[in-house]
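Task: complex structure prediction.
Instruction: return structure tokens for all chains below.
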Amino acid sequence: MPGEKEIISRVRRRARAGSGVVLGVGDDAAVVRINDAKDVIACCDLMVEGVHFRSERAGPAMIGHKALAVTLSDVAAMGGVARFAMVSIALPRRVSAAYVDEILQGIFDLAAACDVSIIGGDTSSSPDSLFIDTSVIGECSRGRAVTRAGAQAGDTIFVTGSLGASALGLALLEKGYRLDGVEEGSPRGQAILKHLRPHPQLALGREIGEAGLATAMIDVSDGLSTDLWHILEESSCGAVIQAEKLPIAETDELEIDPLQFALHGGEEYELIFTARPERRDEVMQLSNSLGTRVTVIGEIVTERGLRLEQDGAIEDVPPLGFEHKI
Amino acid sequence: MPGEKEIISRVRRRARAGSGVVLGVGDDAAVVRINDAKDVIACCDLMVEGVHFRSERAGPAMIGHKALAVTLSDVAAMGGVARFAMVSIALPRRVSAAYVDEILQGIFDLAAACDVSIIGGDTSSSPDSLFIDTSVIGECSRGRAVTRAGAQAGDTIFVTGSLGASALGLALLEKGYRLDGVEEGSPRGQAILKHLRPHPQLALGREIGEAGLATAMIDVSDGLSTDLWHILEESSCGAVIQAEKLPIAETDELEIDPLQFALHGGEEYELIFTARPERRDEVMQLSNSLGTRVTVIGEIVTERGLRLEQDGAIEDVPPLGFEHKI
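Output:
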């Protein structure tokens, strides 16, 4: 494990002072400037070795990437623009300087790709496991953050990308498959990649927030059933979704039920959002202009609960995903 | 260990929505409002069981208190006002719900005392050790953050409170002394308390920042020698401090050298700051009005390095404290 002074100097070297950074890494705290007429969005996500990731399944750059990606996804889900990030990392003694460098590389590469400035953090040794906590500060126009609480009966329910691949990727990893043993671009390779290296839907989230398109929004961290359930609970309403409309991720696996993976699989980091039906065309235009797939999967209704319509029958869907966010 | 949903509902129940909180705990992210003409201050500190604390030495409320206190101290050291905090916590399975409650109580009590709103966080299980990462968002008038880089030759060097008690407290804890086995209010009791339950100098830090009194400021987390050294490095200057002026914490221990503890002992969370000599009276008036002890300990000089004047002799002081902040 490299010394803390060494890590600090590595981080300092790489931390670009992006726009809005008055004072970056290296003082007691960072100082940033948020434009007038903006609200500040803040969130953090903790990733623990042995709980959220295993170093034998993912390289260090992917671990770093994912640690930041999941927190950026929360800002996307508020309709905000991610601006600044801090990284606290506890390193077991067995970890080499090169390994730490690759974790940082994964974090810095994603930050650069998303125009996010790394402004600080903390580092410590760890008696056993690797811990990474990332905090992100973003912004949105005042009063325009998209919460989970605004969905109304009649709203159309949208989801970005496809669902189920990340859970499939995890299942494949648990079976012993590794990224370097599967064909690149194959459904298996794509599933494992989606699990290990998720891409937050920052551009779409931001545009939805700026245009005021959504009545409620959340990211799929715990699974469609659980995350949509959060919207329904906070908005005091229900939903009916259509099984045949769900954008189920492509798979060749015969022993799994892709619908169940799409309904309950977590860590997709896609966005679920609701919008008034008359704004559907605007949503689709945005989807086209950004090249981000958006699918209508159902409708918000007055009657509480989440129901799935399939082959003419309707059944209740319990929230079967994970629950772990404060 | 209580379930994550249970922890979330505990946090939600206790999180007061203070001023500036548009959206607190419970959504993908928090939304807060920072006044126009303010800069945003952001920092985080990681505390790891077995590295920064031991559960056999400190009760859970003290562990929670300290986890937040050390991060608040960083905002004080920027001359800022601490406003909002997030807490990420990884809990080993052996931890009971009552234990978690007490950790949270320690955090919430300090937050309430400092007018800081807890706006979010994350929780996870941990394979072994307890981890707490706290992030704090504060504010200061635009361009008025007090960095480590502004000290100039001729500046007077001040320090708050007294120095050496926290390191002494740690030494006593390592010898087997515990808070409940020493007399309350005794030098030993005070030393252990200062180590386990430090109080960040938020009021003085904020007032210094608002009045533009200091040319540079830092908090004593790694020890006077190391932290003053940071100011000297960032400000490209040196310092001479007087041994007989140092506010050395009271002690009855015969086998220690209190001066060495005061010079190099970390985790004091006092503030070291420099100011132009003509502002000394203003600093002392502020000290009186807040009832916070402030002592002049020396002067900034052109010649690089840190020197100690004692009994007419001058010797170099190397930075012997810890270095661990990004």
